[in-house]
Amino acid sequence: MSVTASSALIAQGYRRARVVTRHHAKSFFFASYLLFGQRKKAAFALYAFCRRLDDLVDAGESALPGEAPMDLATRLARARERVAEVYLPLPELASKELGPPSARQPSADAPSPWDPSEFAALRHTIHHYRIPEQPFQDLISGMEMDLTKVRYDTWEELDLYCYRVAGVVGLMLTPVLGCVDARAVEPAADLGRAMQLTNILRDVREDLERGRVYLPSEELRAFGITEDDLRAGRVDAKWRDFMRFQIQRARAYYARAAAGVHYLTGFGSQRMVRLMGSIYGDILRDIEARDYDVFSGRAHTTTGRKLELTATVFLRPRAALPEAPLALPSAPVPLLPTGTGGSR
């Protein structure tokens, strides 16, 4: 695809991105009603990029439409090249780790993993809001982790995964939401981490069915839980204690994210982020309401609850996504408790 694209192709890409978002990300789409104009379209374009990257991983080595079969590592390498292509006119925003984008270009006949119109909309979004390259490349690194890891030994390993597959999405969105203050970066990443950890706690059964356990094995052992317990869907005192601990950790990340909301200056941006965080955070409340049983049903936030949370965002915004009672550095994410037994 050429560096420039017609306005018609870009507009088509934004329309396609909206459809992708509405179909695959109902909570994100719901929260996007609080954004307007170009900011909303840009949010859809970024989501569509992330979704298509997920599709690459889900397809494995199967052929995608219009493409010959190839291994997933090659597909992700092509994705890296296509991202680098976007930054040819923006070398100052290119990844410092990977070097000049001019040295990382795809061959002329290399197929693109993206629909041309969606990629045109993504390029337009990146150029318009001057979004740095590194978060996009880090997201691809997160997808690469799924090529080689189906178990995580420690929280540090899982935290890196959460950052790469979700925290970086917050970094992509920050310029779109009207912020150039560097102090907003860490809270933005923390919201993504919180949401990804919420997904992991909600989807234990589904991940097991795919042969994956994201819950850190060190922490499972510390609470006396085995993978056989997970496969049996055993909800006992040990599991409840484990889930309380993980939910406390996730809420600490949500609270840290809330501390950065005030840096967002785009119209509707603060409310959108509070609503998105509160909708996802409400999944944790539903897990608690199910007595921590994430095996027999999928925790979720109902449409009625989403409407209640929307009203809260407008009437009591700080209650929708509460900040920690202390300043950000004094609100640590809980560490593995001592005295719980198990191998450390």
Automatic annotation (TrEMBL):
Pfam families from the UniProt entry: SQS_PSY (PF00494)
GO terms, biological process: carotenoid biosynthetic process
InterPro entries reported for this sequence: Isoprenoid_synthase_dom_sf (IPR008949), Squ/phyt_synthse (IPR002060), Squalene/phytoene_synthase_CS (IPR019845), Trans_IPPS_bact-type (IPR044843), Trans_IPPS_HH (IPR033904)
Keyword terms: Transferase
GO molecular function: geranylgeranyl diphosphate synthase activity; squalene synthase [NAD(P)H] activity
KW Transport (keyword) present: no
Protein's recorded name: Squalene/phytoene synthase family protein
